[in-house]
């Protein structure tokens, strides 16, 4: 059953983001200028990490590019080939490639930092343990993991996004559930921030930072 869930999740998520890639990038371009809490969390991560970093589920590369501007040796991975094309065009000095967060094309203990910035928003609960196990596998000891996600305990089916028809589910997760997954994979939580919804957001937003033992 989990195999069927994974195949459906990958296919629907890839199709949705291939469809919206260009418009998604246009809508979020420049968003960081007004995202005070996002900048604060990412700047703290950039100060803590030294060495190779991977932005998993990087989309059009806006977070990857932001971290690169802060001097990090960072690359991006995304499930959507169209998103990767946009990311390469928007950030020509940064490396991007297609891949799944459930099966990262990285050697064991090969990176010092991993960012999953709203990358789990479409990942069903049943697949979260596999995702966190993969994150832990590729992190070196004392490597840092930063997760950003929508805080809550809800599932919604999305049929339109960024002016396009799509067919994808989104999930909100309780921060403690994410912290428990960190702990279960040998990653010690070092920071948790939950902020109120702002602007068009419908629910609180959460950021968790952890370090691998």
Automatic annotation (TrEMBL):
<dbReference type="GO" id="GO:0008168">
    <property type="term" value="F:methyltransferase activity"/>
</dbReference>
<feature type="domain" description="Methyltransferase">
    <location>
        <begin position="53"/>
        <end position="143"/>
    </location>
</feature>
<dbReference type="GO" id="GO:0032259">
    <property type="term" value="P:methylation"/>
</dbReference>
<protein>
    <submittedName>
        <fullName>Methyltransferase</fullName>
    </submittedName>
</protein>
<dbReference type="InterPro" id="IPR041698">
    <property type="entry name" value="Methyltransf_25"/>
</dbReference>
<dbReference type="Pfam" id="PF13649">
    <property type="entry name" value="Methyltransf_25"/>
</dbReference>
<keyword id="KW-0489">Methyltransferase</keyword>
<dbReference type="InterPro" id="IPR050508">
    <property type="entry name" value="Methyltransf_Superfamily"/>
</dbReference>
<keyword id="KW-0808">Transferase</keyword>
<dbReference type="InterPro" id="IPR029063">
    <property type="entry name" value="SAM-dependent_MTases_sf"/>
</dbReference>
